[in-house]
Amino acid sequence: MGAQKKGATARVSEDPEELARHPLQAILLADSFTTKFRPITLERPKVLLPLVNIPMINYTLAWLESAGVEEVFVFCCAHSKQVIDYLESSEWSSQPNFSVTTIESHNSISAGDALRLIYERNVIHGDFVLISGDTVSNMSLTQALQEHKDRRKKDANAIMTMVVKQSKPSPITQQSRLGTDELFMAINPVTKQLLYYEDKAEYSKGFISLDKTLIADNPSVILHNDKQDCYIDICSQEVLSLFTDNFDYQHLRRHFVKGLLVDDIMGYKIFTHEIHSSYAARIDNFRSYDTISKDIIQRWTYPFVPDVLCGSSAIKVERQGTYRASDVTLSRSAQLGSFIFIGQGTKIGNDTKISHSVIGERCTIGSNVTIEGSYIWNNVTIEDGCQLRNAIVCDGVILKSGAVLQPGVILSFKVVVGQQFVVPAYSKVSLLQQPTQQDSDEELEYADSTSGTGELRSDKLNGDIAPDLSEIASELGTGGVGYIWKVFEGAYDEEWRHSVAPIPTDKLVKLMLDRDEDEELLTQDGNIISASGELKTDSDGNGSEDDDNEDSRDDYVSFEKEVEATFLRAVHENVKVDLAVLEVNALRLSYNMASVDCGGAIFYSMMKLAVESPHNSASELHRNAADIVTTWQKLLKSFLHDIDEEIEVILKFEEMCLESAKEFAALFPQILHLLYDKEILQEDAILRWADEKEGADESDKVFLKRSEKFIQWLREAEEEEEEEDE
Amino acid sequence: MNRVGLQYLAGDLSGGNARCIAMLQAFQEAIRDYSTPPEKTLTRDLTSKIGGFVSFLIECRPLSMSMGNAIRFLKSRIARLPLTLSESEAKTTLCSDIDRFINEKIVLADKVILRHAAAKIRDGDVLLTYGSSCVVEMILLYAHELGKQFRVVVVDSHPMLEGQKLLRRLVVKGLSCIYTQLNAISYVMHEVTRVFLGASSIFSNGTVYSMVGTASVAMVAHAFRVPVLVCCEAYKFHERVQLDSICFNELGDPDAISKVPGRVDVNFLDNLTDKQKENLELLNLKYDATPSDYISVIVTDYGMIPPTSVPVIVREYRKEYLLI
């Protein structure tokens, strides 16, 4: 603390006249108005969640204090009582030259509402810093403020300065290391004016569209995708009144910033201030929680690091980034790896291995426990032989012996995991039941039941076990308590993007392949995988051959799909056969397939079309197939150059009859005959196929037997021909 | 030739091997462009010409021992050219000799050193290195490729801060590193299990002549009983005997230590009057000598040898490269 106070006074004295006029004010939103931290935030507000054992809001307040802010208005909404209680009991309520005032609201559902309420209170008198209570920073505001003020003097319309920082998103996942999506910003390099802001670009489209006036009006524009929005804004009073005037503004960025940029209201302008060496980041999701915790432990946020924030002697930093409170009970055989934090009163048993983790206060950890990359809060009991990887474990959780938490697991308050139970990856477990329906309006944060949850909890844990407990128990093994939240349809795919766990290797590989296909970008595998680090998870052993096979199979499947789509389009839009041939050829080249594959794929799509077009009986199906084959025989023929390719078609057909289009099974000989009549298949091909099949298993011969007559006929015809020749 | 000289001057080329290779390649080019003036013999004239180049290079920046050795090698090659050779033949032999020197004495030597040194890295080791030595960097990366689990401590010092370059390359490759300044050496030495140092030259009494600060690192390591491995190609060995680093050294730009780049608030030495400056001497030494007592082993292309064996290598080596 001492260090910061010195810093604060030093900075104030740098610029006494400026600050004497207006005490610098800040609005701190102690509510993120999102649901990303559910289920934890159902019971405790996000700003009070411990970040390396200190509530997040402390980092923000400490920074504001050191940056020379004198008055902070903390806006609390969800769980407002908890926030207010915390602030009142903390040191922040009694600081000289730094006043923290809380503003409470129960019906605000967005940042916009909050700012409107603050405007009504009429407490802001000049420029202010707008920040949310989950931001960690150590930047100096002096320069940014000065720039802001200078601009204001020249141009009264410069109402806001946004702080941005260099951060390159990963080329594979299109997401920054904080787990936020790629952000596109257009900035005028001379004036630093922000001209364009897009955080939800459609990657599938592969392009973003800029208004052409933007380029016409500015002599130069730089489009960045390598900047990170720090969510620290220096605003003028007008910002508040703008929110009041435009009552539909809810989200700070999505509505306010974009609204100003797009609608050009009253000519107001937003500028950016880039920081280079200092740190600023906001905890937006579990991934950024993980990233920022690591940054704090590695001291990038100095002076806002646990040993400084906790005061004099409580926490000691040791070698290899180990933070240890003074009264930790540590077994002699426990192995502590690098970058770990162990809070006060924690006991650690024999042969326990811990690395890259944070362990809170008064935890009891048994023997032979493995903890990697996990965040364990206070009063947690972990019995012998548990394994935790990249998990978040909230206060009061009990892990019975042998429990395993797979990567990405979130255990909310007081959950009990039964013996030997394996909590599957990315699951979220809470004592509270999942709200039955995901609210489509994601602005609606935390459950509206601040009081309700408390009662519910005490009910369950006050000895007399509620009747429904037995039913819950089954979800978490014997003796377990808690509900495993279901992941919503479609959301599962996205779960890994924001999880505490690092992105699994197979996802990265898959994404990389997708990307290769999309753009044929040259991504050097090795480089990218190693660059993103943390990838040495578990799938090292099983060689690359599997992967290769997998790849080519995947390729073939997607190629088949493409061909099918092309074919269907050709059918529906009456594309000429020649053009269709051309298109399929192009596909073949881009997927690097042989023409054998083409023939198979085209035939497959033809038959599929025949099956899918309405039919009542087998004969109708036959007619359908005949029609299609007649119309498109030229297309098919142009990929069947030799007998091998024709045999391939027959094999494909056989496969189809067995798997996807069983209706054809009965029609097999007829279709074969049809293809023969249309001269798509030569008799040699059919006979060769028959010969090949002779030696096969009985099960393989089903179709051969069915078409026996036809083949017989073919053979006889051939013989007759030969005889005639003679 | 001028380009190389200017690069030395600007500090774009640093590191004993890089400088030496650049110089040899410049010589190669010079030899290719050379034609013997009438009434002179190639051996005599070319030697004097090379002498001219060398004095130009010395003007740009004093030569390192390794470069001296390389020049000596070249001159001996020129002197030993058979008189019967035609000019073009002589030129091609010289060029291929230089190529061979670079290849055998530097590139291949590094590879051999790599093998030897990597054998000394075990899982769980904490390796300390000082400044930025390209051999040490190769060793670390090689050991990392072999899958050994170890951590690296990069110690650095003002004003060159070359360690940051090394650090960047190591971190990019995924090694786990600690970066610290020379001042903190005694703190960090506790956890270190081995010290790897590069050298500019090694004298025949086993004294290692290297970037300033190396001696302190070696001494602290010795005091902590941490083995010190000096990695150095044999062509950098020199038969001179030197006991301290004062009689032969290089002085850097004094401004470099009086100012701190990027820190405007550190300006205590600005605005001194001329009178006051008379009382001040800014000493920016580039090299220092580490006594052989502090060195456990020297890793060279001839294997791992104790510092006392240096004279043997020098003797044998002399013989050998005069015979090439």
UniProtKB/TrEMBL annotation, chain A:
All copies of domain W2, residue ranges: 553-724
Keywords assigned: Cytoplasm, Initiation factor, Protein biosynthesis
SUPFAM superfamilies hit by this protein: ARM repeat (SSF48371), Nucleotide-diphospho-sugar transferases (SSF53448), Trimeric LpxA-like enzymes (SSF51161)
InterPro entries: ARM-type_fold, eIF-2B_epsilon_N, eIF2B_epsilon, LbH_EIF2B3/5, NTP_transferase_dom, Nucleotide-diphossugar_trans, Trimer_LpxA-like_sf, W2_domain
Any Pfam family hit: NTP_transferase
Location(s) in or outside the cell: Cytoplasm, Cytosol
Lipid metabolism found in the keyword field: no
Top-level division of the source organism's lineage: Eukaryota
Coarse class of the protein's main subcellular location: cytoplasm
Gene3D superfamilies: 1.25.40.180, Hexapeptide repeat proteins, Spore Coat Polysaccharide Biosynthesis Protein SpsA, Chain A
UniProt feature, compositional bias: Acidic residues: 543-553
A GO molecular-function descriptor: translation initiation factor binding
GO cellular component term of the entry, any: eukaryotic translation initiation factor 2B complex
Region described as Disordered: spans on this chain: 437-462, 523-554
Homology family: Belongs to the eIF-2B gamma/epsilon subunits family.
Assembly and interaction partners: Component of the translation initiation factor 2B (eIF2B) complex which is a heterodecamer of two sets of five different subunits: alpha, beta, gamma, delta and epsilon. Subunits alpha, beta and delta comprise a regulatory subcomplex and subunits epsilon and gamma comprise a catalytic subcomplex. Within the complex, the hexameric regulatory complex resides at the center, with the two heterodimeric catalytic subcomplexes bound on opposite sides.
UniProt protein name: Translation initiation factor eIF2B subunit epsilon
Lineage: Eukaryota, Viridiplantae, Streptophyta, Embryophyta, Tracheophyta
Gene transcribed to yield this protein: LOC107895031
TrEMBL record, chain B:
Pfam families: IF-2B
Classification of source organism: Eukaryota, Viridiplantae, Streptophyta, Embryophyta, Tracheophyta
Family: Belongs to the eIF-2B alpha/beta/delta subunits family.
Entry keyword Mitochondrion: no
Keywords for this protein: Initiation factor, Protein biosynthesis
Protein name: Translation initiation factor eIF2B subunit delta
Keyword Protein biosynthesis: yes
Organism per entry: Gossypium hirsutum
